[in-house]
Specification:
Two copies of one chain form a homodimer. Chain A has helices spanning 6-26, 29-36, 40-43, 50-62, 68-74, 79-96, 98-110, 113-138, 144-160, 162-165, 178-193. In chain A, helix 1 crosses helix 4 (50-62) and helix 4 packs parallel to helix 8 (113-138). Chain A is mainly alpha-helical and 196 residues long. Chain A has two domains: 6-57, Arc Repressor Mutant, subunit A (Orthogonal Bundle); 68-193. Helices cover 75% and strands 0% of the residues of chain A. Chains A and B meet through helix 1, helix 7, helix 8, helix 9 and helix 10 of A and helix 7, helix 8, helix 9, helix 10 and helix 11 of B. The structure holds a DNA duplex (18 and 18 nucleotides).
Chain lengths: 196, 196
DNA sequence: GTCTATAGCCTGATAGAC
DNA sequence: GTCTATCAGGCTATAGAC
Protein backbone atom coordinates (compact mmCIF):
# COMPACT_ATOMS: atom_id res chain seq x y z
CA UNK A 1 0.00 0.00 0.00
CA UNK A 2 2.16 2.89 -1.25
CA UNK A 3 1.39 5.96 0.78
CA UNK A 4 1.68 8.68 -1.84
CA UNK A 5 0.77 7.15 -5.21
CA UNK A 6 -1.13 9.30 -7.66
CA UNK A 7 -4.35 7.39 -7.12
CA UNK A 8 -3.95 7.71 -3.38
CA UNK A 9 -3.88 11.49 -3.62
CA UNK A 10 -6.67 11.50 -6.19
CA UNK A 11 -8.87 9.54 -3.78
CA UNK A 12 -8.22 11.99 -0.96
CA UNK A 13 -8.94 14.99 -3.15
CA UNK A 14 -12.07 13.46 -4.61
CA UNK A 15 -13.46 12.50 -1.23
CA UNK A 16 -13.01 15.88 0.47
CA UNK A 17 -15.76 17.84 -1.31
CA UNK A 18 -18.10 14.89 -0.84
CA UNK A 19 -17.46 14.57 2.90
CA UNK A 20 -17.75 18.34 3.26
CA UNK A 21 -21.11 18.43 1.52
CA UNK A 22 -22.79 15.26 2.78
CA UNK A 23 -20.90 14.22 5.91
CA UNK A 24 -19.28 10.91 6.78
CA UNK A 25 -22.41 8.79 6.68
CA UNK A 26 -23.78 10.66 3.68
CA UNK A 27 -20.94 9.51 1.45
CA UNK A 28 -20.70 5.94 0.18
CA UNK A 29 -17.48 4.27 -0.87
CA UNK A 30 -19.11 3.88 -4.29
CA UNK A 31 -19.57 7.65 -4.54
CA UNK A 32 -15.89 8.29 -3.94
CA UNK A 33 -14.93 5.51 -6.33
CA UNK A 34 -17.18 6.90 -9.07
CA UNK A 35 -15.68 10.38 -8.69
CA UNK A 36 -12.16 9.00 -9.00
CA UNK A 37 -13.14 6.72 -11.87
CA UNK A 38 -12.50 3.35 -10.24
CA UNK A 39 -14.68 0.81 -8.45
CA UNK A 40 -15.39 0.69 -4.74
CA UNK A 41 -13.35 -2.48 -4.28
CA UNK A 42 -10.24 -0.75 -5.62
CA UNK A 43 -10.39 1.77 -2.78
CA UNK A 44 -9.54 -1.01 -0.35
CA UNK A 45 -6.11 -1.36 -1.90
CA UNK A 46 -5.28 2.11 -0.59
CA UNK A 47 -7.21 2.25 2.67
CA UNK A 48 -8.15 -0.60 5.02
CA UNK A 49 -11.64 0.85 5.55
CA UNK A 50 -13.85 3.89 5.17
CA UNK A 51 -12.91 5.46 8.47
CA UNK A 52 -9.18 5.50 7.80
CA UNK A 53 -9.80 7.01 4.37
CA UNK A 54 -11.76 9.75 6.11
CA UNK A 55 -9.02 10.43 8.66
CA UNK A 56 -6.33 10.65 6.00
CA UNK A 57 -8.52 13.00 3.98
CA UNK A 58 -9.03 15.27 6.98
CA UNK A 59 -5.31 15.42 7.74
CA UNK A 60 -4.56 16.09 4.08
CA UNK A 61 -7.05 18.98 4.06
CA UNK A 62 -5.91 20.65 7.26
CA UNK A 63 -2.16 20.25 6.92
CA UNK A 64 -0.10 23.10 5.52
CA UNK A 65 -3.16 25.33 5.86
CA UNK A 66 -1.76 26.89 8.99
CA UNK A 67 1.79 27.16 7.67
CA UNK A 68 1.42 30.72 6.41
CA UNK A 69 0.45 32.26 9.72
CA UNK A 70 3.88 32.37 11.33
CA UNK A 71 5.52 34.39 8.54
CA UNK A 72 2.58 36.74 8.21
CA UNK A 73 2.57 37.48 11.93
CA UNK A 74 6.33 38.08 11.92
CA UNK A 75 5.87 41.06 9.61
CA UNK A 76 3.43 42.80 11.92
CA UNK A 77 5.20 45.12 14.34
CA UNK A 78 2.70 46.56 16.83
CA UNK A 79 -0.28 44.86 18.55
CA UNK A 80 -2.84 46.55 16.35
CA UNK A 81 -1.12 45.36 13.19
CA UNK A 82 -0.83 41.86 14.56
CA UNK A 83 -4.52 41.89 15.40
CA UNK A 84 -5.47 42.91 11.87
CA UNK A 85 -3.11 40.37 10.32
CA UNK A 86 -4.52 37.57 12.45
CA UNK A 87 -8.14 38.41 11.63
CA UNK A 88 -7.30 38.66 7.95
CA UNK A 89 -5.60 35.28 8.10
CA UNK A 90 -8.58 33.68 9.78
CA UNK A 91 -11.04 35.20 7.29
CA UNK A 92 -8.87 34.24 4.34
CA UNK A 93 -8.28 30.66 5.48
CA UNK A 94 -11.87 29.75 6.26
CA UNK A 95 -13.65 32.30 4.10
CA UNK A 96 -12.25 31.17 0.79
CA UNK A 97 -12.01 27.45 1.48
CA UNK A 98 -15.62 26.35 1.79
CA UNK A 99 -14.66 22.70 2.03
CA UNK A 100 -12.21 23.26 4.86
CA UNK A 101 -14.79 25.19 6.84
CA UNK A 102 -17.53 22.64 6.29
CA UNK A 103 -15.25 19.81 7.45
CA UNK A 104 -14.23 21.76 10.52
CA UNK A 105 -17.84 22.52 11.38
CA UNK A 106 -18.93 18.93 10.93
CA UNK A 107 -16.19 17.64 13.18
CA UNK A 108 -17.03 20.16 15.86
CA UNK A 109 -20.71 19.21 15.93
CA UNK A 110 -20.10 15.46 15.74
CA UNK A 111 -17.88 15.58 18.79
CA UNK A 112 -16.10 12.28 18.19
CA UNK A 113 -13.10 12.21 20.52
CA UNK A 114 -10.49 10.96 18.06
CA UNK A 115 -11.52 13.44 15.40
CA UNK A 116 -11.55 16.34 17.87
CA UNK A 117 -7.97 15.49 18.75
CA UNK A 118 -7.06 15.55 15.07
CA UNK A 119 -8.66 18.99 14.83
CA UNK A 120 -6.70 20.27 17.79
CA UNK A 121 -3.45 18.77 16.51
CA UNK A 122 -3.76 20.08 12.96
CA UNK A 123 -5.65 23.35 13.37
CA UNK A 124 -6.22 24.89 16.77
CA UNK A 125 -3.03 23.99 18.59
CA UNK A 126 -0.60 25.23 15.90
CA UNK A 127 -2.55 28.46 15.51
CA UNK A 128 -2.93 29.07 19.23
CA UNK A 129 0.74 28.31 19.83
CA UNK A 130 1.58 30.99 17.29
CA UNK A 131 -0.49 33.74 18.86
CA UNK A 132 -0.55 32.67 22.51
CA UNK A 133 1.99 35.26 23.60
CA UNK A 134 0.18 37.86 21.57
CA UNK A 135 -3.11 37.03 23.32
CA UNK A 136 -1.44 37.38 26.71
CA UNK A 137 0.04 40.74 25.83
CA UNK A 138 -3.10 42.20 24.28
CA UNK A 139 -5.09 42.95 27.35
CA UNK A 140 -4.63 41.78 30.88
CA UNK A 141 -8.28 41.87 31.72
CA UNK A 142 -9.10 39.11 29.21
CA UNK A 143 -8.42 35.42 29.57
CA UNK A 144 -6.11 34.51 26.65
CA UNK A 145 -7.88 31.30 25.65
CA UNK A 146 -11.34 32.86 25.81
CA UNK A 147 -10.04 35.81 23.83
CA UNK A 148 -8.66 33.51 21.17
CA UNK A 149 -11.96 31.70 20.72
CA UNK A 150 -13.84 34.99 20.82
CA UNK A 151 -11.86 36.26 17.85
CA UNK A 152 -12.14 32.96 16.03
CA UNK A 153 -15.87 32.81 16.73
CA UNK A 154 -16.49 36.34 15.59
CA UNK A 155 -15.07 35.44 12.20
CA UNK A 156 -16.39 31.89 11.90
CA UNK A 157 -19.95 32.65 12.89
CA UNK A 158 -20.31 35.18 10.10
CA UNK A 159 -19.49 32.41 7.66
CA UNK A 160 -21.53 29.76 9.45
CA UNK A 161 -24.61 31.93 9.41
CA UNK A 162 -24.12 33.37 5.94
CA UNK A 163 -26.85 31.22 4.33
CA UNK A 164 -29.49 32.28 6.85
CA UNK A 165 -28.37 35.90 7.14
CA UNK A 166 -29.74 36.30 3.64
CA UNK A 167 -33.22 35.48 4.89
CA UNK A 168 -33.29 38.16 7.59
CA UNK A 169 -34.36 41.81 7.37
CA UNK A 170 -31.57 44.40 7.05
CA UNK A 171 -29.55 42.00 4.91
CA UNK A 172 -27.24 43.60 2.38
CA UNK A 173 -25.09 41.72 -0.14
CA UNK A 174 -22.00 43.46 1.23
CA UNK A 175 -22.38 41.42 4.42
CA UNK A 176 -20.84 38.53 2.53
CA UNK A 177 -17.86 40.60 1.54
CA UNK A 178 -14.59 39.47 3.12
CA UNK A 179 -13.19 42.99 3.53
CA UNK A 180 -16.37 44.10 5.26
CA UNK A 181 -16.16 41.22 7.68
CA UNK A 182 -12.50 41.92 8.43
CA UNK A 183 -13.34 45.59 8.97
CA UNK A 184 -16.30 44.84 11.22
CA UNK A 185 -14.47 42.32 13.40
CA UNK A 186 -11.31 44.43 13.59
CA UNK A 187 -13.21 47.56 14.65
CA UNK A 188 -15.04 45.53 17.25
CA UNK A 189 -11.87 44.02 18.69
CA UNK A 190 -9.95 47.30 18.67
CA UNK A 191 -12.75 48.80 20.75
CA UNK A 192 -12.90 45.83 23.08
CA UNK A 193 -9.14 45.79 23.63
CA UNK A 194 -8.74 49.56 23.86
CA UNK A 195 -6.20 49.76 21.03
CA UNK A 196 -7.47 53.07 19.61
CA UNK B 1 -53.59 10.80 11.93
CA UNK B 2 -54.36 12.77 15.12
CA UNK B 3 -51.91 15.61 15.42
CA UNK B 4 -51.38 15.78 19.15
CA UNK B 5 -51.92 12.30 20.54
CA UNK B 6 -49.75 11.18 23.43
CA UNK B 7 -47.75 8.84 21.23
CA UNK B 8 -47.21 11.60 18.69
CA UNK B 9 -45.60 13.80 21.33
CA UNK B 10 -43.67 10.88 22.78
CA UNK B 11 -42.20 10.17 19.35
CA UNK B 12 -41.08 13.77 18.93
CA UNK B 13 -39.50 13.89 22.36
CA UNK B 14 -37.79 10.55 21.95
CA UNK B 15 -36.37 11.44 18.54
CA UNK B 16 -34.86 14.81 19.50
CA UNK B 17 -31.92 13.60 21.60
CA UNK B 18 -31.17 10.97 18.98
CA UNK B 19 -31.14 13.43 16.08
CA UNK B 20 -29.06 15.84 18.15
CA UNK B 21 -26.46 13.20 18.94
CA UNK B 22 -26.24 11.25 15.68
CA UNK B 23 -27.73 13.48 12.98
CA UNK B 24 -30.50 12.75 10.50
CA UNK B 25 -28.81 9.89 8.69
CA UNK B 26 -27.34 8.53 11.89
CA UNK B 27 -30.75 7.76 13.35
CA UNK B 28 -32.85 4.85 12.10
CA UNK B 29 -36.61 4.70 12.39
CA UNK B 30 -36.01 1.55 14.44
CA UNK B 31 -33.97 3.53 16.97
CA UNK B 32 -36.75 6.02 17.50
CA UNK B 33 -39.35 3.26 17.69
CA UNK B 34 -37.30 1.32 20.24
CA UNK B 35 -36.92 4.38 22.43
CA UNK B 36 -40.66 4.99 22.36
CA UNK B 37 -41.42 1.32 22.88
CA UNK B 38 -43.20 0.57 19.61
CA UNK B 39 -42.10 -0.87 16.29
CA UNK B 40 -40.80 1.08 13.33
CA UNK B 41 -43.91 0.37 11.29
CA UNK B 42 -46.11 2.00 13.91
CA UNK B 43 -44.31 5.30 13.39
CA UNK B 44 -45.86 5.54 9.95
CA UNK B 45 -49.30 5.93 11.52
CA UNK B 46 -48.14 9.30 12.83
CA UNK B 47 -45.78 10.55 10.16
CA UNK B 48 -45.82 9.88 6.42
CA UNK B 49 -42.03 9.43 6.34
CA UNK B 50 -38.79 10.00 8.21
CA UNK B 51 -38.20 13.49 6.88
CA UNK B 52 -41.53 14.86 8.04
CA UNK B 53 -40.95 13.35 11.48
CA UNK B 54 -37.65 15.19 11.59
CA UNK B 55 -39.22 18.51 10.58
CA UNK B 56 -41.95 18.24 13.18
CA UNK B 57 -39.38 17.37 15.81
CA UNK B 58 -37.30 20.43 14.91
CA UNK B 59 -40.29 22.76 15.11
CA UNK B 60 -41.32 21.21 18.40
CA UNK B 61 -37.84 21.78 19.83
CA UNK B 62 -37.42 25.37 18.71
CA UNK B 63 -40.90 26.69 19.38
CA UNK B 64 -41.59 28.49 22.63
CA UNK B 65 -37.84 28.66 23.22
CA UNK B 66 -37.73 32.29 22.17
CA UNK B 67 -40.90 33.30 24.01
CA UNK B 68 -39.11 34.46 27.15
CA UNK B 69 -36.92 37.05 25.47
CA UNK B 70 -39.52 39.79 24.99
CA UNK B 71 -40.49 39.99 28.65
CA UNK B 72 -36.89 39.82 29.84
CA UNK B 73 -35.86 42.64 27.53
CA UNK B 74 -38.80 44.80 28.61
CA UNK B 75 -37.43 44.91 32.16
CA UNK B 76 -34.08 46.29 31.07
CA UNK B 77 -34.04 50.07 31.04
CA UNK B 78 -30.75 51.35 29.64
CA UNK B 79 -28.65 49.99 26.71
CA UNK B 80 -26.06 48.43 28.95
CA UNK B 81 -28.69 46.51 30.90
CA UNK B 82 -30.35 45.37 27.69
CA UNK B 83 -27.00 44.18 26.40
CA UNK B 84 -26.37 42.12 29.50
CA UNK B 85 -29.88 40.71 29.50
CA UNK B 86 -29.60 39.68 25.87
CA UNK B 87 -26.26 37.96 26.33
CA UNK B 88 -27.55 36.18 29.42
CA UNK B 89 -30.59 35.01 27.48
CA UNK B 90 -28.46 33.69 24.64
CA UNK B 91 -26.09 31.88 27.01
CA UNK B 92 -28.98 30.44 29.01
CA UNK B 93 -30.97 29.25 26.00
CA UNK B 94 -28.17 27.51 24.17
CA UNK B 95 -25.85 26.84 27.08
CA UNK B 96 -28.22 24.73 29.11
CA UNK B 97 -30.09 23.02 26.28
CA UNK B 98 -27.44 20.80 24.70
CA UNK B 99 -29.95 19.19 22.39
CA UNK B 100 -31.24 22.48 21.05
CA UNK B 101 -27.73 23.69 20.34
CA UNK B 102 -26.68 20.48 18.63
CA UNK B 103 -29.74 20.57 16.39
CA UNK B 104 -29.10 24.19 15.48
CA UNK B 105 -25.47 23.47 14.69
CA UNK B 106 -26.30 20.47 12.54
CA UNK B 107 -28.83 22.42 10.51
CA UNK B 108 -26.41 25.26 9.95
CA UNK B 109 -23.69 22.98 8.63
CA UNK B 110 -26.00 20.87 6.49
CA UNK B 111 -27.28 23.93 4.70
CA UNK B 112 -30.47 22.39 3.37
CA UNK B 113 -32.65 25.25 2.13
CA UNK B 114 -35.97 24.15 3.66
CA UNK B 115 -34.40 23.49 7.04
CA UNK B 116 -32.56 26.81 7.03
CA UNK B 117 -35.88 28.55 6.47
CA UNK B 118 -37.33 26.68 9.43
CA UNK B 119 -34.37 27.88 11.51
CA UNK B 120 -34.91 31.46 10.47
CA UNK B 121 -38.66 31.28 11.07
CA UNK B 122 -38.44 29.65 14.50
CA UNK B 123 -35.20 31.02 15.93
CA UNK B 124 -33.33 33.85 14.27
CA UNK B 125 -36.16 35.98 12.93
CA UNK B 126 -38.18 36.16 16.17
CA UNK B 127 -35.05 36.98 18.16
CA UNK B 128 -33.73 39.53 15.69
CA UNK B 129 -37.13 41.19 15.44
CA UNK B 130 -37.06 41.61 19.20
CA UNK B 131 -33.69 43.32 19.40
CA UNK B 132 -33.46 44.95 15.96
CA UNK B 133 -34.24 48.43 17.27
CA UNK B 134 -31.81 47.88 20.10
CA UNK B 135 -29.05 46.91 17.66
CA UNK B 136 -29.68 50.06 15.64
CA UNK B 137 -29.53 52.27 18.71
CA UNK B 138 -26.42 50.69 20.23
CA UNK B 139 -23.76 52.17 18.03
CA UNK B 140 -24.05 53.90 14.71
CA UNK B 141 -20.72 52.75 13.47
CA UNK B 142 -21.78 49.09 13.45
CA UNK B 143 -24.06 47.40 10.95
CA UNK B 144 -27.03 46.08 12.98
CA UNK B 145 -27.22 42.64 11.37
CA UNK B 146 -23.47 42.06 11.59
CA UNK B 147 -23.55 43.21 15.19
CA UNK B 148 -26.34 40.76 15.99
CA UNK B 149 -24.44 37.82 14.56
CA UNK B 150 -21.25 38.99 16.23
CA UNK B 151 -22.92 38.82 19.62
CA UNK B 152 -24.58 35.51 18.83
CA UNK B 153 -21.31 34.11 17.50
CA UNK B 154 -19.31 35.24 20.51
CA UNK B 155 -21.60 33.20 22.73
CA UNK B 156 -22.21 30.23 20.46
CA UNK B 157 -18.60 29.63 19.53
CA UNK B 158 -17.61 29.22 23.15
CA UNK B 159 -20.09 26.36 23.37
CA UNK B 160 -19.26 24.93 19.95
CA UNK B 161 -15.57 24.77 20.79
CA UNK B 162 -15.97 23.66 24.39
CA UNK B 163 -14.93 20.03 23.72
CA UNK B 164 -11.69 21.02 22.02
CA UNK B 165 -10.90 23.94 24.31
CA UNK B 166 -10.19 21.31 26.94
CA UNK B 167 -7.35 19.97 24.83
CA UNK B 168 -5.51 23.27 24.50
CA UNK B 169 -2.90 24.84 26.80
CA UNK B 170 -4.13 27.56 29.19
CA UNK B 171 -7.40 25.70 29.66
CA UNK B 172 -9.11 26.16 33.00
CA UNK B 173 -12.32 24.43 34.09
CA UNK B 174 -13.89 27.83 34.74
CA UNK B 175 -13.92 28.43 30.98
CA UNK B 176 -16.98 26.19 30.84
CA UNK B 177 -18.74 28.25 33.47
CA UNK B 178 -21.79 30.12 32.17
CA UNK B 179 -21.26 33.16 34.36
CA UNK B 180 -17.65 33.43 33.20
CA UNK B 181 -18.76 33.33 29.58
CA UNK B 182 -21.43 35.98 30.15
CA UNK B 183 -18.87 38.14 31.92
CA UNK B 184 -16.25 37.72 29.20
CA UNK B 185 -18.63 38.43 26.31
CA UNK B 186 -20.30 41.35 28.10
CA UNK B 187 -16.99 43.02 28.94
CA UNK B 188 -15.88 42.57 25.37
CA UNK B 189 -19.06 44.07 23.93
CA UNK B 190 -19.15 46.98 26.38
CA UNK B 191 -15.66 47.89 25.25
CA UNK B 192 -16.49 47.48 21.58
CA UNK B 193 -19.64 49.59 21.86
CA UNK B 194 -18.17 52.23 24.14
CA UNK B 195 -20.76 51.75 26.87
CA UNK B 196 -18.35 52.27 29.77
C1' DG C 1 -52.76 2.19 16.73
C1' DT C 2 -49.88 -1.39 16.88
C1' DC C 3 -48.30 -5.61 15.33
C1' DT C 4 -45.54 -9.20 12.06
C1' DA C 5 -43.59 -9.94 7.82
C1' DT C 6 -41.35 -8.58 3.98
C1' DA C 7 -40.25 -5.98 -0.31
C1' DG C 8 -36.68 -3.37 -2.47
C1' DC C 9 -32.84 -0.84 -2.03
C1' DC C 10 -28.24 0.70 -0.45
C1' DT C 11 -24.33 -0.11 2.52
C1' DG C 12 -19.24 -1.56 3.65
C1' DA C 13 -16.38 -5.13 2.80
C1' DT C 14 -14.28 -9.61 0.71
C1' DA C 15 -12.66 -13.34 -2.79
C1' DG C 16 -10.42 -14.37 -6.65
C1' DA C 17 -9.39 -13.56 -11.75
C1' DC C 18 -6.52 -10.61 -14.59
C1' DG D 1 -3.88 -2.22 -8.74
C1' DT D 2 -8.05 -2.82 -10.63
C1' DC D 3 -11.70 -5.56 -11.95
C1' DT D 4 -16.44 -8.47 -11.50
C1' DA D 5 -19.25 -10.82 -8.55
C1' DT D 6 -21.10 -11.35 -4.31
C1' DC D 7 -22.21 -11.25 0.57
C1' DA D 8 -24.42 -10.12 5.01
C1' DG D 9 -26.58 -6.59 7.15
C1' DG D 10 -29.10 -2.21 7.60
C1' DC D 11 -32.33 1.01 5.72
C1' DT D 12 -37.23 3.12 4.66
C1' DA D 13 -41.58 2.02 3.65
C1' DT D 14 -45.78 -0.92 2.75
C1' DA D 15 -49.48 -4.73 3.32
C1' DG D 16 -52.57 -6.88 5.97
C1' DA D 17 -53.98 -9.14 10.51
C1' DC D 18 -55.63 -7.88 15.08
Amino acid sequence: MPKQSKTYIKILEASLPLFAAFGYKGVAMRDIANTVGITAAALYNHFPNKESLYFKALEYAFDAQVAGLAETLANAKNPRQRLTVFIEFWVETFGSDVILRALLQREMTDGDEARLKLLVRHVFFPVYEEIEGFMHSLAERYDPLLLFFSMAGLVMYHFETAPLRRLLPDFKPEHDNHEKIVEHVTTLMIGALGLH
